[in-house]
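User: Hi! I'm working on a homework problem where we have to compare a predicted structure to a textbook description. Could you give me the structure for the chain below?
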Amino acid sequence: MVSVIIPVYNRAKYIEDCLNSVLNQTYKDYEIIVVDDGSTDNLKQVLLPYLSKINYIHKENGGAASARNVGIRNAKGEYIAWLDSDDRWFDFKLELQMMLLEKIPELGFICSDFACFSDEKGKISDSYILDYFTIYDQYNLSFEKMFPHHLTLGELNINHMNRDSKVYWGDISDKVIWGPLFLTSTVITRRACITDIGFFNEKYSTIEDYDFHSRIIKKYKAAYVDIPTMEYRRYHADQISGPHMRLQKELNLLDIAINLCVKDEGFFEKSKKSVNLKLSQCYSAVADVYYRDKNYKNAWKYFLSSIKFNFLQKRVYWRTFVSFINIIRINFFVIFSMISAKNE
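Assistant: Happy to help. Predicted structure tokens:
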């Protein structure tokens, strides 16, 4: 059985769309666990017609990681799939992924491409993974380069309308360093993998799924299906991953990079050059947010850390210099103002 875990906070507007996409699955051996993370809207009222079909759990507000962990603790399935409350699956999603888990039993983790739409614009793209995750272009990554194996669905004897579409799989543990590569709502994983690697880290208020899935991928073989299996809803006002979360996201990415790649001494020794490059980029990304916010003291500190891991960064040197000049300027005006006030 698949346990479908849907964390939700104030998404009464979207939850019916989300739930109906699960109830319409061609694969029927599943349970739906909706974890209400302390919603203050009319969510429970909207859910009333669905209560006989779902396991509804209400908890105090604690964030997505906390809600997903509650879902895991209450799950009965051998497999766990995630669905964000503003997204929706295509009806073949679970059936296709379960067939793949049967065909390639060494897999611990499966994800896929996804389509994208918005309430205002309608369809944005039928294939959005490369547009959404710019890391692929930034590091010149392709699925052929990332994964050791690939076959078409037809070659795997999987009966699907897109028989020529490819499935890529294998050990990609060395790729987790580069950052988020897969969308959570496309993922299904074995419960045994979670028992092994542990739950979501609840200290992360954003990007917690990257940390969690990276820990699985470091130990288990993963697969990517080059077919969109769901629709990602983008550009709505209450989206958790909006611009207001930028600083926290970059700080979390830095912390995750240190935990995944530096504290794991074996990984660090094997990939030292790549780790140092990634750390320099993480420190620079944090510094850039502070720089844009005119917090020059913190920007200067993080730019210096970035340079420590990678000396060849002209832009970072310039911004470090500008930050330092602004620190002097600001301190000068503070001192000048204090002296002027004292003399009056």
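For your comparison, note the following. The longest strand covers residues 221-233. The chain has a mean pLDDT of 92. Good luck with the assignment!
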